[in-house]
Amino acid sequence: MDHRESDEVVESSVGGVAPGDMESNASSFFDDEEMGISDPLLRWQTGNTTSQIAVVGANVCPIESLDYEVVENDIYKEDWRSRKKHQIFQYVLLKWTFALLIGLATGLVGFFSNLAVENIAGFKWLLTSNLMLKHRYHEAFALFAGCNASLAAAASALCAYLAPAAAGSGIPEVKAYLNGIDAHPILAPSTLFVKIFGCIFGVSAGFVLGKEGPMVHTGACIASLLGQGGSRKYQLTWTWLRYFKNDRDRRDLITCGAAAGVAAAFRAPLGGVLFAYEEAASWWRSALLWRTFFTTAVVAVVLRTFIYFCRSGNCGLFGKGGLIMRGVPFKILHAVAISLLTSCCSYGLPWLVKCTPCPPDILDQCPTIGRSGNYKNFLCPPNHYNDLASLFLNTNDDAIRNLFSGGTNNEFHISTLIIFFAGVYCLGIVTYGIAVPSGLFIPVILAGASYGRLVGTLLGPISKLDEGLFALLGAASFLGGTMRMTVSVCVILLELTNDLMILPFVMLVLLISKTVGDCFNKGVYDQMVKMKGFPFMEAHAEPYMRNLKAGDVVSGPLMTLAGVEKGKGFTKERVSTGAADVLRRFDPFDFAKAGSGKGVKLEELDIDDAEMEMYVDLLPIVNRSPYTVKETMSLAKAAVLFRELGLRHLCVVPKSPGTSAFDILTVENLRGWMRI
Amino acid sequence: MDHRESDEVVESSVGGVAPGDMESNASSFFDDEEMGISDPLLRWQTGNTTSQIAVVGANVCPIESLDYEVVENDIYKEDWRSRKKHQIFQYVLLKWTFALLIGLATGLVGFFSNLAVENIAGFKWLLTSNLMLKHRYHEAFALFAGCNASLAAAASALCAYLAPAAAGSGIPEVKAYLNGIDAHPILAPSTLFVKIFGCIFGVSAGFVLGKEGPMVHTGACIASLLGQGGSRKYQLTWTWLRYFKNDRDRRDLITCGAAAGVAAAFRAPLGGVLFAYEEAASWWRSALLWRTFFTTAVVAVVLRTFIYFCRSGNCGLFGKGGLIMRGVPFKILHAVAISLLTSCCSYGLPWLVKCTPCPPDILDQCPTIGRSGNYKNFLCPPNHYNDLASLFLNTNDDAIRNLFSGGTNNEFHISTLIIFFAGVYCLGIVTYGIAVPSGLFIPVILAGASYGRLVGTLLGPISKLDEGLFALLGAASFLGGTMRMTVSVCVILLELTNDLMILPFVMLVLLISKTVGDCFNKGVYDQMVKMKGFPFMEAHAEPYMRNLKAGDVVSGPLMTLAGVEKGKGFTKERVSTGAADVLRRFDPFDFAKAGSGKGVKLEELDIDDAEMEMYVDLLPIVNRSPYTVKETMSLAKAAVLFRELGLRHLCVVPKSPGTSAFDILTVENLRGWMRI
After folding, report:
1. Which of B286, B486, B658 sits opposite A278 (nearest CB)?
2. What integer is the mean pLDDT of B554-576?
3. Which of A417, B122, B164, B271 has the smallest CB count inside 10 Å?
C-alpha cells in the first residue's frame, strides 16, 4: 500500500483504455465542435490523483470488455442520415432472418445430438444385456466399461486438444459474454464443434451429466458465428452481413441463441425465453422478449417435425427423442477414471439389492429386458424386477422419467432410493470436474427426484400423495437451491411434465429452496463465473462503493491525441480536412467492430517513415458526446451508469467548473473492483 | 414559429422544474464540494439559446414526473452510513412483508368480486328463466333489462360521482404510473373503492366487459395504499412504514400489485409475473421477477384456499369460482342505454335461431334450464337446445367456457356463431366507452373465440380438428392482435386451459397476429395511454430526435439559488452552517417524498417577514453529483439516459470547457417531445 505500489497500479491501468482496437479507441475520446486542430482531444489531470484508499483494490481486469455505447461521431451521423428506407427494412428483416436461422440450426443440432446419444447408448445397453442374458457377466462388464471408457476418452480428447473452452456447462461462459466480457475462445467455431460432439460422446458414455448447459453454449456459438459479419476467408462478404458489426446486435443474437439452446434441450420454448431473461442476460430490452420468443417457437416446430418424422422408424433403433444428454493426457485419464467409477456404480450397485415381484396388473410391461422401461429385469427370476437397475442401468433421461412416473407407488424400495441418491449425488459432483461438455441440470434433477421420491416413500403412510409428485417437487427444490432461478425453472418443469395443477406446489418449493440457498451463498453459475475468473459486473453496486468517489478510481495517466495528429497520414499540412473529406474516403463499415479475434492489431499496422511525418485528422471520427460524470459522484452511482447503459468508458470531469481536465473511468477498472 | 411564440414556450417551461415539491427541487441542483456560500448553485446560460427548430415541438408536459434518481447529498450519505444491520434487515423484511400483504389483499378482493358477480348474475338468470318457464316473456324481459339497467346505473354513478379515474380498464393508467407519470387520482383510495364495486356491478349487469383490467388496477391501488408510508390522519405513523417514502420503492410495490391483479383475475400466477414485465412495467430489475413471483404465488394460494372452502357450499347459490368479470347524469344515461342494448341483444337475438336436438349421448346434461351449462333450453321443446342462448344468455365466463369446450363439434351452427361474433364485437366496442370499470380481455376473448370456432366449423370437413381448439386459437389471435403481448398471453392461455400440447400452435398464432397488427398501429393499451393524454416515454427514441441536440430543448431560464439563501431561516448571518448543524436539525425522512397528493405546497408555507430576512443553508441538501451531458449530445442519446436511469432532470453542460454555465433538460420536456 506504499506509494510505489500505487504508481505501478496506475501505470498498468493504462492498458485499460482499449488497447488493440484502434478505431474504438480514437472514437471514444472527448471533443468539442469548434475545437482547434492542435488542442488535445482530452486533457488529463496532472499528477497522481488516485487516492490511497482507492489503490488498495485497484486490480484492473486484464480481459477486455465489449462496448455498447453509441459512438456519436461525424461518420455515424452521416451514416444514419443517409440510410434509406429500404436499408432500414433490410436491417430489420435481417434481424428476424438471423433469429429464424438460429432457431433452425439450434433445433437441428439439438435433435441430432439426441438421436446420436440414443442410438449410441441404446446399442451399448443392448450388447451388454445380451451378454448378461447369456450369464457372461464379466464380459458384459468389460464391454460396458470399455464402451464407456472409450467414449469418455474421445470426449475429453476433443476438449483437451481442440477446444479447452468447451469443457463444462458453458452457461457461465455465455453469462460472462452477455455481461460484456470479451474472452475470444468462448464462442469460437472450434468450441462449437467440440461442444456438440464432446457432449454426444460424454452423455453416451453414461456420465452423470446433462446436455442442457452444452446446448445453451451451442446455441450461443451458432448465434455468434452468424453475427461475425461474414468471413473474408470463405468469401462471405455480402454487404447485408456487415450490418451486424457492432457489439449491441451481437449481444442480442447471442441472447436468442441461449434461449434457443434451452428450448432445444428441454423442448420447452417458453422456458427458454425465461431462462435467457432470468439467468443468462445482463442487458435486456422488451424487443428481445419478442425475438427470443420467435426463435424458440422455431426450435419447437423443428423438433416436433423431426420427432414426427422419426416416429415412422426412420431414425435408427432408439430414436424416440429423449429428455437428455452430457485436459491433455491427464485430463483424458481423469475422464476415463471417472468413467470407470461410473461404470462400476451402474453395473455393480444393482447386485446389492433384492429382486421385487412385478405388480400383478402390468405383467405385460414388467419386467423389461434390454430396452428402456420402468422395470429392468437384471438377473431376476421371471416376473421380477431389480429396482436399482431400473435407475442406474438406464440413460439419465429414462431414470428421470421412471422417478417422475405417477401411479407407481412402492415401485422403488427406500434402500434403493438412498443408494441411488447417494451414488448420483457423489458421481454428479466428481463428474462435473472432468474435461467434457457437461450440463448441471440433469445431475441436479436426478438427485432431487430421488431425494423427493425418498421423502414421498417415507411419508407415504401419512400423505397418501403420489410419489411421482414428490419426485418432481424434489427436483424443483434441488434446481431452485442450486441455480436460484424461479420463473424459468417453474416453466421448464411445467413444460416437461405437462401438468399445470402442480404449479402452486412447485412455486412454493422453489421459493423455499431459493430463500434457504440465498442465506448461504450465490447460485452455482455465479460461483462458476467467479471461479473461472470472469470479472462479472453485478446489477447492484457493493455497499463499500458508496464510500468511494468516481474520481478515486480513474485510470491514468491517459494517452491523449490532438485533433489533428501525426501518423499514417492523409495530408502533409497540419490542418483539419473537415468531415467531408473523411466521409469521402471512408465507409462507416471501416469503423465497425470486427468479429471476435479478427480486429487489426496495433502492431500489425505497417507505417513507414514518410507516413509517420504526415498528419491524420481525427476530429470527424471522435465521439462528440461521451457520457460524463463529476468526480464527486459516488462510485456506486457511476457503476449504475456502466451497467444500465453498457458503457466501456466514462469521462470523469473535475469538480471545479473552471478547469477542463478529464479522467477516464473504465469498466475494466470497475470489474476489477467488483472482484475484490 | 415567430420569436414571440418561442419566448412564450421558453417561459412556460419554467414550470417544468419541479414546482410543488420543494425538497426535490432544491436537492436536484448542481453543486461543488468547496463552493462559496453566495455562489449560485447553478449558473444558467444568458440569452435564449433554444434553437428555432426545437421550439416547434416544445410542448412541455403539464403532468409531473416521478424521480428515480438517488439524490446524493450530505443527508443521504449520513443516512446510509449510519444505517445499522438490523435496519437493513428490517427494510428487506418489510419489502417481502408488503409483497405478501399485496398478494393476500388482491387475492381476497379477486375472490370476493368473483363471488359477488356470480351470485348477483346467477340470481338474475334464475328469476328470468323462472318467468320464461311460465311463458311470461314480456315480464321476463322487463325484469332482465331492469336488473341490468339498475346495476349499470349503480356502476356508472359510482364512477361519475366518486372516482372518474376508475372508469375503463385501468391498465393504461397503471402503465402510465409505472412510466413515471404522477397523476394523483390514478391510485387514490376512492379509485380503489369504485374499481372494486363498479366492476362487480358492471359485470353483473351483463355488459360485454371483463374484470381483469380492473383487477390489475385494483392490485396497483392496494400496493400504492401500502406504499404511502402510513397516514397521519389515521394515526398510522410507525417508523418502519416510512422506509418506503421514495418513488423507487413505490414503483416496485405497484409492479407487484399489477402482477397480483392478473394472477387474481385469471388464476394465472406465472401469467401475472409475465404480464407485469411485458406490458405494465417500464423499469424492471431481476430482483422484481423474484418478488412478483412471490406475490402471485400468494394470490394463487389464497384463491385455491377459498375455492376449496366454497366447494362445501358456504358461498351462496352460485359460488363456483369463475373465469371472469367489467360521467355524471349523461354518463349514467349512456351506461343505461348500452345496458338496454345489451339486454335486447342477449334476450332478443336467441329468438331468431332454430332449436337444435340434443346429442343423444348426453341427454342428462342437455338441455340445462336456469343454471349455467353448455345447452340452454330457452323456449325449445324437450331435448332440444337454443345454441345462441347458450352463448348470449349466460355470463361471459360461461360463454367462453362453452366456446372453448372440446368434443362438442357441431354444437353451434354457423349462423349462430356469425350472429354472436357480430353482436359481441359491436357491443364490446360500444361498451368500452361507458363510465364503468371495464376490462378488455373478456370481450376480445369472446370475439376471438367465436371467430375461431366459426373458422373451425367452416374448415370442419377438411381439418378434422376439434372446434374448441379453433376457438382457443381464435382467442389467442385476437389477444395478440389487440394487445401485442406474446409471452404473457401465451402463459395466461396455457394456465386457463391447462393444456400444454397446444403451445406451438398458440405461439405461431400469436406471432402472426402481432406481426400483422404491428404493420398498422400500436397495441390498444399504448393507444389508450396516448388518447388519455399521458405523456408516455417510450423505450426507444424517435428517429427525428437524432437530429436534435440536448442543448436545443433545454428548459430555461432557470431559477437559481445560492448556496446560502434567504428564506424561512436558521441563522441571521449569511454563513454556511455546515452539514453537522443540518444533520442535527433534520431527519432523512423530512426529505423523503410524501405519498401522492400529500406533499407540502409552496403556497401553504407560512413564512413571516422576519423569517424572510433570515438565511437558510442549502449546501448540505443539494445533490452533489447529478447526471450531466454535454449540450452537443443528441437528444436521442440523452433520452436513453432518462429512460434507463429513470431521471427527472439532467444537467446540460456547455461545449466550451472554460465556462461553467448549465442548463436543465427535464423529463417533462422530453415527454412533451415524444407526444408530437
Report:
1. B286
2. 65
3. B164
In this prediction, residue B309 carries a pLDDT of: 81
Return the residue of A nearest to B277 by Cα. A286
Q: Are strands A649-653 and B649-653 parallel, antiparallel or unpaired?
A: unpaired
Rounded CA-CA distance B326/B430 in Å is 13
Which residue reads 511525418 in cell numbers?
A613
Cβ <8 Å between A640 and B637: no
- pLDDT average, residue stretch A144-171: 87
Per-residue pLDDT reduced to its tens digit, A163-172: 888 888 888 8
B42 φψ region: left (φ > 0), alpha (ψ -120 to 50), beta (else)? beta
Contacts of B501 in chain A (CB under 8 A): 498
Find which of A469-473, A562-566, B264-268 is predicted with most confidence, using mean pLDDT.
Answer: A469-473
Tell how far CA B434 is from the center of its chain.
18
| Residue B236 burial (CB count, 10 A) | 11
Q: Residue A276: list chain B partners with CB under 8 A.
A: none
Of A278, A625, A641, the CB nearest to B289: A278
pLDDT value for A454:
92
The mean pLDDT value of chain B amounts to: 76
Instruction: Measure the CA–CA gap between B399 and A593, rounded to whole angstroms.
Output: 57
Taken in order of first residue, the domains within chain B and their CATH numbers are 3-63+537-674 (no CATH), 85-311 (1.10.3080.10), 357-519 (1.10.3080.10)
3-state secondary structure of A567: strand
Q: What is the dihedral of CA A388, A394, A397, A400, to 10 degrees?
A: -10
Instruction: Reduce the secondary structure of B428-450 to three states and give it as a string.
Output: HHHHCCCCCECECHHHHHHHHHH
| Span B341-354, average pLDDT | 79
pLDDT value at residue A8:
31
CA distance B673 to B16: 13
Q: For residue A229, what is the DSSP state?
A: -
Contact yes or no for A628 and B625 at CB 8 A = no
Residues 6+ apart with CB under 8 A from A326: A199, A202, A203, A207, A208, A209, A210, A211, A214, A396, A431, A436, A437, A438, A439, A442
C-alpha cell of A327? 485436459
Is the pTM value of this prediction over 0.80? no
Q: Which of A192-201, A336-345, B335-344, B649-658 has the lowest mean pLDDT?
A: B649-658
What digits encode the pLDDT tens for the residues B510-540?
889 998 998 898 888 888 888 877 778 777 7
The H or E element containing residue B575 is none
Query: Considering only CB atoms, which chain B residues are within 8 Å of A626?
Result: 630
Helix (H, G, I), strand (E, B) or coil at B549: strand
In whole numbers, what is the pLDDT of chain A averaged over residues? 76
Measured in angstroms, the CA of A644 and the nearest CA of chain B are apart by: 6
